[in-house]
Amino acid sequence: MLASMFPSRTLTSYLAKLFIGRILGVLVLLVIVLQALQLLSESGDILAVPGNGQAEIWRFVQLNVPQLIARFLPYSVLLATLFTFWPLNQNSEVIAMRAAGLSAHQVLAPLLLVAGAVSLVSFVFNETVVAKSTGTLKTWGELNYYPIPAETGTRSNVYLRDGNDILAARTVSGSGAATVMEDVTFYRRDSGGMVLQQLRSARATYANPGWTLQAPTAFDVAQTATQKLGNTVVAPTLTPAQVAISRVDPDGENIVTLGQQIGALRDAGRRTDALDGKWWHKISGPLSALLMPLLGSVAAFGLARSGQLLVRAIVGMALGFAYFVVDNAALAMGNFGGYPPLIAAWAPFLLFALVGETVLVRTEE
């Protein structure tokens, strides 16, 4: 079967090298331009923090570049497909391949092979590098680029309910009984949701049961009075396990950790449809690179002298970008419960695979 799909080793190597070079070229160009634009918008906020300097600017670049690579790699494959097929068609090389007896699928096969390898590399890169850098950068951004506490597993802007009361923390780090909250605010509320008292503390630790606010400042709403208190225990029904699953960032976790967190949420009786869709999309997302040669191949076939080469290239680009629009819309619908998670993650991929194959078969005929 491989011999029938790749009848010429020389031609396969030629097309694969051409395609890889264009993917890398487009990706590097996109990353450089987009990173420069983001630096222009974020560098002021980073340098506004006392003590931040050039090292923090480079840290932002190091954390942001993996995200840009992961986000725009499929676009790079799409544009590389067009930039590969356009000159091949313009120079009648595709016509020569077809005249030699190659089918449209055989002409496309080397590009699909490279795209499959790109999808695999993208999946591994996303799970080992991108997830960690995304979680770190998101936490750093939510802290307004102030230093992230040294403890591992730090999360930011966590809100927790204890009956009618609310416990909010700017950062939460550690696990189990060693969980520590920083910059904590506790809202004591009545049954109607009105705030009766506000307690603010720099730090809270687990008191088993409850959480000890260290020397909080209390504001009484009814009396509009502020007073300094000693260590105060609040939220007696809130456990470290509930804190651990209070906020799950699917973009900042790898597929294994995310699966474990989804299981913990299910055990706690929480809905996980949105997270399930994100879990499946961690697989279907990288596979989008495999679709791009199929969708962009419309630019490869047809006579260049017919004057429709530009139109074909535009159609191929439109099909590729339409996939990303539909994919994002399906995920959004899945988050709102409009689609089951499996369908939200996989339906766009399967739909556009059928569209691309249909276009290719019609070209073959």
TrEMBL record:
UniProt entry tagged with the keyword Membrane: yes
Gene Ontology CC terms: ATP-binding cassette (ABC) transporter complex
Subcellular location: Cell membrane
Transmembrane domains' residue ranges: 20-40, 68-86, 107-125, 283-302, 309-326, 338-361
The keyword Cell membrane is assigned to this record: yes
Entries under InterPro entries matching the protein: LptG (IPR030923), LptG/LptF_permease (IPR005495)
Record key words, sorted: Cell membrane, Membrane, Transmembrane, Transmembrane helix
Major localisation: membrane
GO terms (BP aspect): lipopolysaccharide transport; transmembrane transport
Membrane topology field: Multi-pass membrane protein
NCBIfam families: LptG_lptG
Identification of the protein by name: Lipopolysaccharide export system permease protein
Species this protein is from: Novosphingobium kunmingense
Phylogenetic classification of the source organism: Bacteria, Pseudomonadati, Pseudomonadota, Alphaproteobacteria, Sphingomonadales
